[in-house]
Amino acid sequence: MIKPVNDTFQTALVAAIPNLRAFAISLCGNVQTANDLVQETMLKAWANRHRFEEGSNFKAWLFTILRNSYFSDFRRGKREVRDEDGVAAASLSSLPEQPGHMDMIDFQRSLAKLSEDQKEALILVGAEGFSYEEAAEICNCAVGTIKSRVNRARARLVELMGVGSVEDFGPERVARAVHSKMS
Amino acid sequence: MINGNKSNSVDSGGEPASTDTSVATQQSSIECGDESETMTAINADGVDDTAGVLLDERVQAQIGQQLTSFYRELVNQPIPQNFMDLLARLDRQEDGK
User: Fold this and answer.
1) Which CATH class is domain A100-183?
2) Alpha-carbon distance B61 to A79, whole Å?
3) How many Cβ atoms sit within 10 Å of the Cβ of residue A173?
4) Cβ distance B87 to A13 under 8 Å?
5) What is the CATH code of the structural domain delimited by A1-95?
6) How is residue A123 annotated by DSSP?
7) Do A122 and B64 touch (CB under 8 A)?
8) DSSP conformation class of A129
9) For residue A100, is it left (φ>0), alpha (ψ between -120 and 50) or beta?
10) Would you say the ipTM is above 0.90?
11) A16-32, pLDDT tens digit by residue?
12) Which residue has the higher pLDDT, B28 or A55?
């Protein structure tokens, strides 16, 4: 009897998986952990589907479940297999070579160095396209807090991807990065 | 501008003092925020000194672009098969009730 509702729910859930995975990989920096996190999110969403308010933002609801799972279970717990430069970068490396590919890996390394708060805010607003208000609701904090986190994340990335990267990569790498920025 | 002559000594990697100076300068230029120029004081063989000076806005735009293409690449990855298996399992559970 409630089957059609479930079908709609499931269709919407499936449609959101690519974005949930992208958000999870961005947070964890590790594809396997991210996949576990998304599957747990799907299970929780399914189990709580009666609690979703019709007409509210379904994607924001799912993202809220995912980030709460991440911060409660995944980040500190034993499930964490943090490997900032390794697995996620490897998954990118396995994709066909394309222009700007090294920039992507550099970018991911820089992203991994942001604080969790800043990274989360930056991804939600800058990459996923949530409004500051939606992001604030997802993260359960004030709108002003989200704004300042996004700003600080951007400033930190400039630092990491500009001069700051000399610490990690040495002059040659920086010369290349500078070149690519100029081209 | 702290690049220029000084930066010639950086390329051997043996001048930690210069590196520290350049990082400190970078941070202060970020704090200035609206100041139009962000400096890149690092130089290496074959890179013109003028390449070290970037507009802050341009760097921000570049980072925004890298963020979106990084994220787009992740979103476009195929969904692993076990996700679909999980959904099918949920469906069956529901049918079994």
Assistant:
1) mainly alpha
2) 36
3) 16
4) yes
5) 1.10.1740.10
6) I
7) no
8) -
9) left
10) no
11) 999 999 999 999 988 99
12) A55
Given a contact cutoff of 8 angstroms between Cβ atoms, the answer to whether B62 and A181 are in contact is yes
pLDDT digits (tens, 9 = 90+) for A74-117: 775 544 444 444 445 545 544 555 556 667 788 888 999 999 99
Cβ distance B73 to A171 less than 8 Å, yes or no, reads no
Domain count, chain B: 1
Q: From A47, A44, A46, A22, select the one nearest A35 (Cα to Cα).
A: A22
Kindly report the pTM of this predicted structure: 0.67
The parent domain of residue B81 ranges over 5-96
- B25 vs A contacts (CB less than 8 Å): 163
CB pair distance less than 8 Å for A19 and B75: yes
Give B58's contacts in chain A (Cβ within 8 Å). Answer: 181
CB contact under 8 A, A182 and B51: yes
Are the beta carbons of B74 and A123 separated by less than 8 Å? no
Please tell me the distance in Å from B5's CA to the nearest CA on chain A.
16
- Other C-beta atoms lying within 10 Å of the C-beta of residue A144: 10
**Domain spans in chain A, listed from the N-terminal domain onward:** 1-95, 100-183
Q: Is A37 on the interface with B (CB under 8 A)?
A: no
3-state secondary structure chain B: CCCCHHHHHCCCCCCHHHHHHHHHHHHHHHHHCCCCEEECCCCCCCCCHHHHEEEHHHHHHHHHHHHHHHHHHHHCCCCCHHHHHHHHHHHHHHHHC
Q: How many CB pairs under 8 A join A and B?
A: 134
